[in-house]
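Archive entry. Fields below.
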Amino acid sequence: MKLRNLWLIARRDYLAYVARKRFWVGLLITPAILLAFIFIPVLIQQFESADKYAVIDHSGWVMTGIQQEVAADDYQRLLNLAAASARAGRANQLPAPLAALAKPAAQLTAEARKSLATALASGGPAPDGAAAQAIWKQRKAFTAWYHGLSTEEARAINGGLAIAQYRLANGDFTADELRKKIVDGALFAYFVIPAKPLEPDASVIYASKNLTNTELRTWFSNHLNSVVRARKVNTVGLPPERAAWLQAQVPFKGKLVTEAGAKQATAAEKFGQWLPIGYVYLLFIAIMSIAQLLMMSTIEEKSSRIAETLLSSVKPSEVMGGKTLGAALVGLTMVCFWIAIVLGLVTAFGPMLPIGGFAHALLSNITAWSIAWFLVYFLLGFLLYASVLGAIGAAVNNIQEAQPYLSPVMIFMILPLLVMVPVIKDPTATWVRVLSYFPPLTPFLMVNRSAASPPLVDYIATTALLIVIVAIVLYASGKIFRVGLLNTGAPPKLKELLSWMRTPKPE
Amino acid sequence: MNQGNAIDIQHVTRRFGTHTAVDALTLEVPQGVIYGFLGPNGAGKTTTLRMLTGILDPDQGDIHVLGGLKPSAVRNRIGYLPEEKGLYKDMRVADVVAYFGELKGLSHREALARATDRLQTAGLGDWIKSKCNALSKGMSQKAQVIATVLHDPDLVVFDEPFSGLDPVNSEMVLELIKQFKREGRTVIFSTHVVEHAEQICDSVIIIDRGQKRVAGTMAEVKAAAERTVILDYEGNPGDLAALPGVIMADDSGQHAELTLADDADAQALLNTLTGRVRIRRFDTREASLKQIFLNVVEEGDREAA
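PREDICTED_STRUCTURE:
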């Protein structure tokens, strides 16, 4: 194999790819699509209507308690928001009734704001302290404003208010009326609270067309249980501190076990556990798009009858090697371009956005070890998929003929995406370990597992196996390439492909 | 084997699966001639040319070119224009032509300089910077021929260079082939249009079903072919087929067509006949290459049947 020929072909293919406008458009569109995937669900949530629900309360006291709790939670959020805005000097951007409370709210502790919110919701007792009293005096205007908020207004405040998400339909309804409203779509769900919720076998009915969306039910259940528990505590005659102690949850602190020993996980480290998903995406997009580029350019050379001219000047192995090298350089260009975009965005906007912490986490989790393995898997994965797609490109005359061959390859190509999230949740599972010994998946799964520091033996054994398979596939596809480039008849059947692989090597 | 031969094919066989495309072919082509490969479609012409240019290897036998060298070892001294050919649509004309030259060993600078120069000479100066998909079919063909010989090869191999060309462009290719000969190159081309071969070839080979049927200089091929005499006469000549040198006679009384043996002397035959009958017409004709070609193919068909 002559290096000069290899290089000439690689250079032409590389320049042909990168000289196209659509290459650069694609480079920009891919990250844009990824961002869209992240932000569109958030945007959709913005425009979703609030879940409307109704309650039939046979007990006569539970719903009152729940409404007080919900209001107290929202008041606390509003007071916190007002305090934070006052400290940032942005109180004037708040709605007027809230802006009026901003200054005194900023003077209160978080604890004081919480008890003040409870007092406001339950109508007393009046709080101590000048700042709290200043707010207390405006309670009528404030609570009236809160209860008058529409869903859109509540959302615009952007304080995570419950009324921005769940809306209680007021009025007395029978179960039949409510059922009809649900069928009509006027109502999302209704609850029926039993007459004696303190009884041991009491249960609440949750009725909805949609039982898969459990957000409303969970939210309502938390508040209902809190109200019922408070009543139980009261009935038993337990002092409130004892009750609080009884109900207190024991907190859990995440610790990350590494070779250096266990330590408190930082935000960056917690994020780092998810980082491999980004790597897998990057690996996937880079490998699949350039392997397809290679296939398309091989098909172009066949369909425009350039292949035979090439073969009269250079060996088939040089054509295939040169094209593969060219495509690999395109992949490298893509990856470098994306890294440059990310680093550029982080430098430009990092200080302004929460993305700053993200970038820090990103950078602190990138080690020479992970980059080295990423490159190894990029190279091997690319060679594996590129040689298969290149051989397909050489065997057929146009993209339509390539479809039947591509379908089985596609299955291997989307598998890594399907298992990506399950793997990241349980990177040490046996099935993950077994699957990573399956060569078409090895590059993706090993990168996927990297957060859990897989044993070195897995790195070495899977890579060795992958190298053997890559060598076999390269050899076989080289044979197909050699025969296929000159075959302009009907695309070969599987049997013919196998016989192509057996043709002896010339010279 | 003559060391000075441009091409030396010895007992070469090439199969594709069960099909034998070239069957024990032997052929020598001296340097500096124009050599025509004739044969019907599927005769094995393209396979032979591909083996000559190192694209395919023979299953059996030996091929040497340019004085005893393996074709794959001297790719840079061979220029090959396949029957089906093309250019990269998105590339500029001069760049494609230069690229093919570079693959044949020219430096980037030299290839680009030659490409620009020769495209201009060929009247494509305005298209040097255009993309290839802007070229008409004839212009594209011209550019491909220029690319094929950009590295000034000693052996030029054209596969069906006239297929799909209008008379003007065909004439251009014919002129080019003659020019290559004047420059001392050996030109091999295949065609199934016999007239083109007859016009410019020094030597030809006719192959059919992978086998050599006839080969040699144009004069040899024609001399080897059977000659016929058209005879119009009055009188009784006796048995025409029994005359010396005649192998077959189609006598209809006053008109006859005589087929002569290879070594027959037409003059002696005329003398013999003059003594027996009154001759109104004695017409010896040399077989045309086309007739030879058709005879060969018919013969092949008969053998196959």
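CURATOR_NOTE: Residues 3-37+272-502 of chain A form one domain.
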